Amino acid sequence: PTSLTFTLSQYDSLPIYSSQPLLLRADIAMYRCKGSHTKIRVFSEELDQHSVQRLSLMSELKEALIDGQLSLHYQPKLSLSSGEIECTECLIRWEHPEYGMIRPDEFIGLAEQTGSIRTVTQWAIKTALEQQARWREKGFLLGVAVNISALDLADMSLPAYVGELQTRLRLPPEKLTLEVTESAVMEDTETAMLALENLRRMGVQLSIDDFGTGFSSMAQLKQMPVNELKIDKAFVLNLASNQDDQTMVRTFLSLAENLGLTTVAEGVEDQAAQDLLARMGCSRIQGYHLSKPLPVEAFETW
Ligand code: G
Ligand code: G
Ligand code: MN
Asked: Is the dihedral of CA 60, 65, 69, 74 positive or negative?
């Protein structure tokens, strides 16, 4: 067991500490221990200013959801065979009244640690599907892709939640893609596999996000009930000028083809990369060359 030491100091003005100061400080100290692989950490202001701020942020997250501080930004995926935008990735943004724009990298991990990720994921899926229904009313049945976290796959109610929404909004299941990071998919706990299989059986599309950054075993990959490989932008950003990246991307594309998976390259920033990917047989591209993630009105104009 990890040893914990914490001292009580002058934090009591922060609302999060009014409830259970001792436990919360212990928790912060424990995360510090884990992070630095040390046995003892003393809780102190200098050390944990950031954590304190972030923990108090987490206590605001639920309210932010109700308050409409969260929104989705939309980034198009272009199909290289049809030349059409068939799908858009939906990326969460938090416009905080005090701190301004908070990027998902700064709060998704925390939401996972504090147990609020389910609420966030459900909100994102619901918002994306409702938007899809509005677009359908306007005559565009555009696919939406939503990111989910590894922990969401432990949530056996997720497939039912998705199914009920799609039925209520009369949306075809295959127009929703759930993007799960490679590492999450490969942690093949039984529950995760079950959740993936249930979603797959419903017709929902599954994509392995950030592919190439994890350590998938080929045997595992073959068994995964997924439809799409999404090549991480690390291999794509400098594609046109980097031979090694070209080799890697070519390898991923042929792997995907042999497994019967479609492919998306993310992080396409120039025409040269787009042309190369088209020649290599990539199915779809996404990146700043086409468009950054945009708020809904700007996306519709685009
Ligand atoms: O937009 P960008 O900085 O926009 O996104 C950063 C990371 O945050 C990406 O890796 C993306 O997968 C993740 N992300 C964005 N929106 C969501 C979301 O709604 N849920 C989860 N779990 N991750 C998200
Ligand atoms: O979920 P995922 O890890 O795929 O998240 C996509 C992330 O990549 C988001 O943060 C998005 O803003 C970012 N992104 C999308 N297109 C580009 C691009 O062309 N260049 C760079 N640098 N980042 C991109
Ligand atoms: Mn993604």
From this structure: positive
Q: From the CA of 104, how far away is ligand 1's center (Å)? A: 5
Question: What pLDDT is stored for residue 20 in this prediction?
Answer: 64
For residue 196, report the distance from its CA to the centre of ligand 1, in Å: 19
Measured at the CA of 255, the angle between CA 150 and CA 189, to 5 degrees, comes to 25
Q: Calculate how far, in angstroms, residue 149's C-alpha sits from the geometric centre of ligand 2.
A: 16
Residue 206: both structure tokens together: 């599954």
Rounded to 5, what percent of the chain is helix, strand, coil?
A: 50, 20, 30
CB-CB neighbours of 159 under 10 Å: 19
Task: Please calculate the CA angle 153-196-126 and round it to the nearest 5 degrees.
Answer: 65
* Per-residue pLDDT, 154: 85
Residues of the chain with pLDDT under 50: 1, 6-18
Ligand of minimum distance to the alpha carbon of 179:
3
Ligand closest in space to the Cα of 123 = 1
Cα 18 to the center of its chain, rounded Å: 32
SS3 of residue 138 by DSSP:
coil
Q: How far apart are CA 210 and CA 227, in angstroms?
A: 14
| pTM of the full structure | 0.85
Task: Kindly report the protein residue whose alpha carbon is nearest to atom 9 of ligand 2.
Answer: 91
State the ligand closest to the CA atom of 145: 3
Give the pLDDT score at 302.
96
Distance between CA atoms of 293 and 122, rounded to whole angstroms?
20
Pocket (CB within 6 angstroms of ligand 2): 75, 91, 147, 179, 209-210, 233, 266-269, 286-288, 293
pLDDT value, residue 3: 57
Cα separations in angstroms, 241 against 11, 118, 237, 287: 52, 41, 9, 17
